Amino acid sequence: MKIDKQNIRMTCRSPKNILLTDKFWKRYRDLVKKKMIPYQWSVMNDQADIKITKERGDHRIPSEKSHAVANFEIAAGKQKGGHYGYVFQDTDAYKWLEAVAYLLTAEPDRQLQKVADRLVDLIADAQQDDGYLVTFFIIEAPERKFKRLKQSHELYSMGHYIEAGIAYYEATGSQKALNIAKRMADCIHEHFGPGKEQIHGFDGHPEIELALAKLYEATGNEQYLELARYFLYQRGQDPQFLDRQIEADGADRHLIAGMEGFPLSYYQADQPILDQKTAEGHAVRVAYLCTGMAHVAKLTHDDRLYEACKRLWKNIVGKRMYITGGIGATSVGESFTFDYDLPNDTMYCETCASVAMSFFARRMLEIEPKGEYADVLEKELFNSTISGVSLDGEHFFYVNPLEVSKEASQKDPGKSHVMFERQNWFGCACCPPNLARLIASVDQYIYTVDPEEKTIYSHQFIANRASFEQGITIEQSNNYPWDGTISYTVSNPEKARFKFSVRIPGWSAQCYDFYLSGKKISKEAHNGYAIFDVTDERLELELKLDMRVREMQADNHVKTNLNKVAIQRGPIIYCMEEADNTTPLNLYQLPKEVFFTENYEPDLLRGVVAIEADALRDEPDDADASLYHEYQQAKKQMKRVRFIPYYAWINRKSGEMQVWTRKAD
């Protein structure tokens, strides 16, 4: 394999082991283990008595049941029947298995492992002799394997198993789980590539690229890395490849109805990836593609790929991302639209897209420790990912809006995808298990190590105890995100010489303090990090961040947010909701000079800091008033308003919600 060895730095080395002690994230990880995992298992086994939502109100979405586990049983010949669900239904089980793997890594659980082992056995039984495994095609259309990649999600589905198989092997030592992954990858390697008898193409949904990069790291087999790189560079080289396949397979034999009208840019396939200047198409596809690009760029030292990643990152974060971290501005294709098009009440912001952006940010950090990457990762973790699950762990959002009207969702077809209450499950159920695997693996996002620079980077303020090489241990303690005091105890018994680098969040860059052994010191940050030389046996370090409430303003190109502000405290974006405030919420206006009060309320929404302020409220026009009338100054009265963390909205009662509030001049 020809590899470009340029100047990309490799910071990817994790702690030897890490124990999560963080109150906030430990509660979420416990929620995954005690509620989300058993609940999702019951749903996938068709045992839960629930209503499954047809997302976007689309009658074509299969929502009678999940049948994900039964599909494997049928493919393995253990029961009779037909395939049910989407062609990618298998991935619900794969992401569930991956989440279980991370839970078992953190804490062994014999009973949970037995359940997961049985699933691995079933997957192995369903896998074909040549390594192929997508249950839809095994059951319903074996003659169509790899023949309609624009819609089939075959490589996407097997990529998700490869990720799960690696995680489960690393957690339990299961060679069977890893061998399934290797056989899948070998099957793909046999069918795809530049060879004369191979398919010169790629999947319509990126994912296999990032999975193969992980498999290379787990096995050291360079053919997997080479294949990942092939898929990346092949994308867009032959823009007509996907449509030629459809013509040969039969133009009217759709695997997913409704996708036939999307342009090639929807699949990031209209031009080579090095030529793509903006994030186009399906938001999840874009973020998965970028994650694979960044990981392969790091492993192969490919500066061209990294430059492409930075270009797309800049476009997404600088012009196409919501303040919550959500991406995807339209329900049509769950896609990006154009720069600064960020509507609050018709947008999409799929939970999976925020999960995928977390992956992308992590891979960028592994190449280059820049504060902006860690800042976005923090934004995703604390806002637009966990907003996708209720505090009880059994109700979910697919779409994460920034403004909701119950009546509009019920009566406006253009807003029917925006829910005013959380759902039991979805016909397209990619989000719940995807979020489970992110939360279960959150400890992997805290640190990276640069062995060349002998530097340990602390990217996230998540309390933990971690062990590194040479006997180095770090204990981080805090009450984040409610309190901005972050304490580190670095133990260095062998007196190794290394650097400890702590992120200064962009939102606190103008005001922060460090205390070394209790003494206040001055320390400048570079690229978002403050660096400390460590030579002694012990380092006691405390960071105090600026946790004042901020009124955030959007770029004035974002016309939907002109003369509006969003409330932020620390990493948390806040919202108003009907449970606390008289509706309609759009009648409120924060005065020019506003005083915020902040109180931690342990009994509110599992414990949050709530923010209150006096706001001006327009008096509603009389119901019998003329629809239009000559301008007159609105009558206002002062009202007390309350803001709660965005991630926790609609956990008490259904109703209105808004993130952006009008601001007086």
Account of the protein in words:
The chain is of the alpha+beta class and 665 residues long. The chain has 3 domains: 17-445, Glycosyltransferase (Alpha/alpha barrel); 468-545, Immunoglobulin-like, CATH 2.60.40; 549-663, no CATH class. Helices cover 34% and strands 17% of the residues. It has 17 helices and 23 strands. The strands form 4 sheets. Strands 1-7-8-9-14-11-12 form a 7-stranded antiparallel sheet, with no helix packed on it. Strands 16-17-21-20-18-23 form a 6-stranded mixed beta barrel. A hairpin with a 6-residue loop joins strand 8 and strand 9. Helix 7 runs parallel beside helix 9, helix 10 (222-234) crosses helix 12 (283-300) and helix 14 (351-367) runs antiparallel to helix 15 (371-385). Residues 455-547 form the Non-reducing end beta-L-arabinofuranosidase-like GH127 middle domain. GO terms for molecular function: hydrolase activity. This is Glycoside hydrolase family 127 protein. It comes from Sporolactobacillus shoreicorticis.
What's this entry about, in short?
With 665 residues, this protein is α+β, with helices and mostly antiparallel strands. It contains 17 helices and 23 strands. The relative contact order is 0.10.
Outline the fold blueprint.
Blueprint: E1 17-20, H1 23-44, E2 52-53, H2 68-75, H3 90-106, H4 110-126, H5 135-139, H6 149-152, H7 154-172, H8 175-191, H9 208-219, H10 222-234, H11 241-249, H12 283-300, H13 303-319, H14 351-367, H15 371-385, E3 403-404, H16 406-411, E4 425-426, H17 431-440, E5 447-450, E6 455-458, E7 464-467, E8 473-478, E9 485-491, E10 498-503, E11 512-516, E12 519-521, E13 529-534, E14 538-545, E15 549-552, E16 564-569, E17 572-577, E18 588-590, E19 597-601, E20 608-618, E21 636-645, E22 657-658, E23 660-663
Parallel strand pairs: 2-4, 6-10, 18-23
Antiparallel strand pairs: 1-7, 3-22, 5-6, 7-8, 8-9, 9-14, 10-13, 11-12, 11-14, 15-16, 16-17, 16-23, 17-21, 17-22, 18-20, 19-20, 20-21
